Amino acid sequence: MALQLGDTAPDFSQESTEGTINFHEWLGDSWAILFSHPKDFTPVCTTELGEVARLKPEFDKRNTKAIGLSVDPLEDHHAWKGDIEETQGCGLNFPLLADADRSISEKYGMIHPNANNTLTVRSVFIIDPQKKVRLTLTYPASAGRNFQEILRVLDSLQLTDNQKVATPVNWRQGDDVIIVPSLSNEEAAKLFPQGWDEKKPYLRMTKLDK
């Protein structure tokens, strides 16, 4: 059965470009972005890995670790690292799992037989410090991922975990948010003394203090 939001992310031990990863132990009290690649030495994957390496300071600010995966062997990963740095201008600075036995790919449902029964698709999982799956995305092999969108959703998850709000369409940090409908106006007034714009009783927009 496919992983659902709220499920515990399966633990695993696997070799990577940074040594053996015991996933839950490695995760610790951080968030994680776990993302898979169809194959080493492929063009779209090369651009994605370079982008995630460039975004490391942004992930660090959000207490988030990135970890990639491909079903190719570890020696191929190490050889590929040079191409990534040469073409993308940023070297690999996070672990890339060598899932040659496909054990992780099977646990996480990363292999889709209708697409190709040997290659992983572009799967993304956001996993929180309690080891719960908070987001899943699946892209076709031909389409590179938008990691700015992944950062945006991570910001939303971290915000809404701590405040009684939800984030509207196209929300970015600093934009107005929605007060959750489960709060009465009396309860909302205590939590949001700055007030709100009530467009409908269920749609109350407010700006959070920085």
From TrEMBL:
<keyword id="KW-0575">Peroxidase</keyword>
<keyword id="KW-0049">Antioxidant</keyword>
<dbReference type="InterPro" id="IPR045020">
    <property type="entry name" value="PRX_1cys"/>
</dbReference>
<protein>
    <submittedName>
        <fullName>Peroxidase</fullName>
    </submittedName>
</protein>
<dbReference type="Pfam" id="PF00578">
    <property type="entry name" value="AhpC-TSA"/>
</dbReference>
<keyword id="KW-0676">Redox-active center</keyword>
<dbReference type="InterPro" id="IPR013766">
    <property type="entry name" value="Thioredoxin_domain"/>
</dbReference>
<dbReference type="InterPro" id="IPR036249">
    <property type="entry name" value="Thioredoxin-like_sf"/>
</dbReference>
<dbReference type="InterPro" id="IPR019479">
    <property type="entry name" value="Peroxiredoxin_C"/>
</dbReference>
<dbReference type="GO" id="GO:0004601">
    <property type="term" value="F:peroxidase activity"/>
</dbReference>
<keyword id="KW-0560">Oxidoreductase</keyword>
<dbReference type="InterPro" id="IPR000866">
    <property type="entry name" value="AhpC/TSA"/>
</dbReference>
<comment type="similarity">
    <text>Belongs to the peroxiredoxin family. AhpC/Prx1 subfamily.</text>
</comment>
<dbReference type="InterPro" id="IPR024706">
    <property type="entry name" value="Peroxiredoxin_AhpC-typ"/>
</dbReference>
<comment type="similarity">
    <text>Belongs to the peroxiredoxin family. Prx6 subfamily.</text>
</comment>
<feature type="domain" description="Thioredoxin">
    <location>
        <begin position="3"/>
        <end position="159"/>
    </location>
</feature>
<dbReference type="Pfam" id="PF10417">
    <property type="entry name" value="1-cysPrx_C"/>
</dbReference>
